[in-house]
């Protein structure tokens, strides 16, 4: 049980402000990549990016140590998670 709790942790070295900044950038890039930028504003980009960071962190934690990755790895994780999240939202909207 302890291994699962360590693997699925969402705390990283960037902190809450870092999540907001990285989430905003990752959400914006993911919305550009997925073609949903016209419907989304800055607030929704930040929300998608932060949720995407948690989603990506959870999914990548099965293969990597995501809690100690730093700014760059957190950004890549948030970007991957945001793209996955927007893809799922597009599938549900159809």
User: How many distinct folded domains?
Assistant: 1
Name the structural class. Answer: mainly alpha
Portion in helices: over 70%
- Tell me the radius of gyration: 13 Å
Uncertain stretches of 5 or more adjacent residues: 1-9
Number of helices: 4
InterPro entries: Transgly_assoc
Membrane topology: Multi-pass membrane protein
Transmembrane segments: 12-30, 42-64, 70-89
Pfam families: Transgly_assoc
Explain the overall architecture.
The chain is mainly α and 94 residues long. It has one domain (15-93). Helix content is 73%, strand content 0%. It has four helices and no strands. Helix 2 crosses helix 3, helix 2 (15-34) packs across helix 4 (70-93) and helix 3 (42-60) crosses helix 4. The radius of gyration is 13 Å and the shape is globular. The model is unreliable at 1-9 (pLDDT under 50).
List its traits:
mainly alpha; transmembrane; cell membrane; 94 residues; Transgly_assoc; 4 helices; globular
How are the secondary structure elements laid out?
Blueprint: H1 2-7, H2 15-34, H3 42-60, H4 70-93
Helix pairs in contact: 2-3, 2-4, 3-4
Task: Explain briefly what this protein structure is.
The chain is an all-alpha fold and 94 residues long. The chain has four helices and no strands.
